[in-house]
Amino acid sequence: MSKVYRVLGLMSGTSLDGVDAAVIETDGERIHAFGPSLTLAYSDQQRSVLMDATQAALSWNFLGPPPNIFAEAEDALDDTHRQAIRELDAGSVDLIGYHGQTVLHRPDQLKTLQLGRGQGLTDQFECPCVYDFRSEDVAAGGQGAPLAPIYHKALVERANLAGVTAVLNLGGVGNVTIITGDEILATDTGPANGPLDSFLERRGLGFDIGGAVSEAGLADFKIVEGWLTADFFQRAWPKSADRYDFDVIDDLAQASVADGAATLCAYTALSASRTIAQMGRRPDRVIVCGGGRRNRTIMTMLALELGCPVQPAEAFGWDSDAIEAQAFAFLAVRVLLGLPNSFPTTTGVSTPTVGGQIAYPSSSRGSRGGE
Ligand SMILES: Nc1ncnc2c1ncn2[C@@H]1O[C@H](COP(=O)(O)OP(=O)(O)OP(=O)(O)O)[C@@H](O)[C@H]1O
Ligand SMILES: CC(=O)N[C@H]1[C@@H]2OC[C@@H](O2)[C@@H](O)[C@@H]1O[C@H](C)C(=O)O
């Protein structure tokens, strides 16, 4: 039997709300057990540094020396991730998977950047750490995202789901994996909560909790159809998106808060459902994870568009807020074992690709834990 690792995954997503941390036990093929998980919110100050780093990254665009603010952002990221590990109180683990924070993603330039220092976590916790999961795929011509699909497949297998299952993640950006037996098709779908969060922030409000704001509004589908003509939606899948690719909220300057929010929910639901339709497999069920599953307006619109059951991940016993962190735990073991994490049908890379770098504690540097 192959070795089962106890591994801790860490994810800081595009919505910059905080760090998700989760432990799983896995051999890199199957999930043997789920461990504890938590989300640790960034302080307002940390969030503002991360926002500034993201804005600075957009202007920098990989040209010239990196902006100074990246070092400050990495300090904030490393501190919060360390605190998340301590608060998780997971006992000893064999490995850490540290996704870091994407500040710029430009697969067309063969570049992507996740801030966060893997070696720092290794040195502090004296545990090997896998980081920089996306660069190798992007350098090889892949989209570098989504990477969670191979983990979504493991979740679907563990739940014994037959037929065609779509796992739709609605974070800041959306992505979907369609699993049919051993086949995995995946892509980013477009905007999820990112534009909705930005719109409500501009109006001085926080998240659309439960979908209460958007539920009271009327979506303007004409505006949405216009947005859906953007380049991203014309490109063939698999494709990946940057959080700031969907900068549409100026078009809602005249809309009421409720109507604007409803229109942005329709943007999310229509971009996801049309992408799924383009992928050529009719799902028997769509399982929704990520913060967007809590938005009733988005969930109702998705069910209307997709014509199959649309359920939150909790309905299958999955810890929805932990799935991305669990995924990077699973992917870390696969990197250690040299198993591929991206595929032609998930990132468009020409051959299955492992990716990731491994930091080892100085006492054991150079030895691989996979043997
Ligand atoms: N109770 C809630 N009701 C409605 N929406 C919510 C709720 N909680 C969170 N959200 C939305 O979900 C978003 C966060 O989702 P999530 O944590 O899945 O994103 P992320 O992991 O940062 O992003 P990504 O998957 O793109 O990297 C928030 O920005 C918010 O818009
Ligand atoms: C470049 C990058 O960080 N992309 C993220 C982002 O957040 C959601 C979507 O865009 C996605 O596909 C990807 O993350 C998930 C976890 C993934 O790689 O599967």
UniProtKB/TrEMBL annotation:
Annotated stretches, region: Disordered: 348-371
Catalysis performed (reactions): 1,6-anhydro-N-acetyl-beta-muramate + ATP + H2O = N-acetyl-D-muramate 6-phosphate + ADP + H(+)
Record's keyword terms, sorted: ATP-binding, Carbohydrate metabolism, Kinase, Nucleotide-binding, Transferase
Keyword Transferase assigned: yes
InterPro entries: Anhydro_N_Ac-Mur_kinase, ATPase_NBD
Pathway(s): Cell wall biogenesis; peptidoglycan recycling; Amino-sugar metabolism; 1,6-anhydro-N-acetylmuramate degradation
A GO MF term: kinase activity
Annotated residues for binding of ATP: 13-20
The enzyme's E.C. designation: 2.7.1.170
Bias (Polar residues) ranges: 360-371
Catalytic class of the enzyme: transferase
Domain of life: Bacteria
Entry's family note: Belongs to the anhydro-N-acetylmuramic acid kinase family.
Biological function: Catalyzes the specific phosphorylation of 1,6-anhydro-N-acetylmuramic acid (anhMurNAc) with the simultaneous cleavage of the 1,6-anhydro ring, generating MurNAc-6-P. Is required for the utilization of anhMurNAc either imported from the medium or derived from its own cell wall murein, and thus plays a role in cell wall recycling.
Protein name: Anhydro-N-acetylmuramic acid kinase
The organism of origin for this protein: Algimonas ampicilliniresistens
Lineage of the organism: Bacteria, Pseudomonadati, Pseudomonadota, Alphaproteobacteria, Maricaulales
